[in-house]
């Protein structure tokens, strides 16, 4: 079993939770890369909208990663509270990606078609 900085050993379920949280962050990084790749094929307006969307996303993602680092080194008493925060921030990030994909998938208006 892994130990935290405070000397408390992580239980199997705690280790599993951390592994799952880290896997979720990797999935998020993959989605981010996908959206950035797909941005090459969209209009300038959509790119601008996605760029401002990325600002909020990066903030949420940073918060999630900080909480993951902190939960790894938390005491037994802090574990439940931090676990809840990790879930919350990762859930917020995943929901943000739904918004990002919606921006990408939005149909081009007829006016935009004529301008191209």
What can you see in these coordinates?
The chain is elongated. It has 4 helices and no strands. Helix 1 runs antiparallel to helix 2, helix 1 packs parallel to helix 3 and helix 2 packs antiparallel against helix 3. The protein has one domain. 79% of the residues lie in helices and 0% in strands. The longest helix has 30 residues. It has 116 residues and is mainly alpha-helical. The N terminus is likely disordered.
Q: Give me the secondary-structure category.
A: mainly alpha
Measured between the Cα atoms of the first and last residue, the distance is 59 Å
Beta-strand percent range: under 5%
Rg over CA atoms, rounded to whole Å, is: 19 Å
Order of helices and strands, N to C? HHHH
Mean pLDDT: 84
Total separate domains: 1
In short:
By secondary structure, this protein is an all-alpha fold. It has helices at residues 12-38, 44-72, 76-105, 110-115. The radius of gyration is 19 Å and the shape is elongated.
Task: Tag the structure with descriptive keywords.
4 helices, 116 residues, single chain, mainly alpha
Tell me the layout of helices and strands.
Layout: H1 12-38, H2 44-72, H3 76-105, H4 110-115
